[in-house]
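To whoever picks this up:

The parser on our side crashed when reading a file containing two proteins. I've narrowed it down to the boundary between the first structure block and the second sequence. Both blocks are reproduced below exactly, byte for byte. First block:
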Amino acid sequence: MTGQPLYTREIYNLQLNADMVVLSACQTGIGRLKRGEGIISLARAFTLAGAQSIVPTLWSVTDGSTKDVMIEFYKAFKMGKAKDDALWFAKKRLSSSKRGKYRRAHPYFWSGIVLIGNTDPIFP
C-alpha cells in the first residue's frame, strides 16, 4: 500500500478494537466540512471505525518535534498515566526545556498534537 492514498471511506469500513490510534503525520486532525455531516477527517474516520481515542495533529508539525513529543508521551504512557496526562506530561517536558538546550520549546512545535476521545490509561 506504499504510495497509495488512504481514503476515509476505507477506514469507515474497518472494525477496530483499538484503545488508541496515533496519527502523528501532518494535519491528520484537519478535515473538510461536508454539509449535513460535519468535519470529515482521518480522526473522525478512525473514531467511527471503533478507536476509543485518537491522537492527531492540527497543523504541519515538524518531524523532529513530533518525534520528541511522541517519545515523552510513550514514556509517560508506559508508566501507567492516563492518555491525557501522558500527553500533558510530554508537552510540559518540552515546553519547560531551556531554549538553548531544546530549540522547539515554543508551543507552535508541540501544541498541535491533541487527544480526542477516551482518556483512560490502557496499562493498569
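<<boundary where parser fails>>
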Amino acid sequence: MQPSDEYLIQKAREEDRSTFEELYNRYKKAIFGYIYRLIGDKAVAEELTQETFVKVYMNLARYRPEGKVSSWIYTIAGNLAKNELRSRGYRKTVSLEVTVSDDERITIGDMLADESFKPDDITQNEELKQDIQKAIQMLPVKYREVLILCDVQSLSYDSVAEIIGSTIGTVASRLSRARAAFVKIFRENFGDRT
C-alpha cells in the first residue's frame, strides 16, 4: 500500500528527501500535463513543473492539512502558469454565448480517449490531438483551467473548486461554458470531427 500524500509531506518536513522524491514522482506527470495544456509550450511547462516542486519543497512548513496535498500542488502550479501567461501579455477572448444541445456535448477526455481510430489513422490521430491542444489554447485562461482540471486531469468538482479557490457551482458553470466554447472553437477552426 502506498503511503498517503499527508504522510509524505510530514516525512519531507522532517527532511526525509526520499519521501519528497516519492511525492514528486507521484505528481510530476500530472502537473506537467496541466501546465503544458495551460501554457502550450513544453520547455516552459518543464521549467514551471520544476519550479512548482521547488516551491512545494520550500513551503512544506506552510502546508495546512485542512486541504488535500494534490490541491495544494495544483494551486501552486496553476498560479505559476497564470503568472507566466500574464508576463507574456497573453490576452484572448472568446464569445461564450453558445447554446449547445445535449447531443452536442463532448469532453476533451472523450475526444482524447477515442480509440475508434485504425492503426492507419495514427497520423490523423496525432493531428487531432494537436488541433485539440490548439483549440484549448484559444480558450480564456479561467475556462481553460477548469476544462483541463475536470476533463483532462479527471479531478472532482470539489478538488477543482479548492484548486481555483472558488465554489463547486462556479466550477460547474465555467466547465459548461468552457465545453460549449471549446466545441464552437474546434468546429470553426478545425472542422466538425466530433
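After patching the parser it read the second block fine. The longest helix spans residues 17-39. Residues 91-107, 117-122 have pLDDT under 50 and may be disordered.
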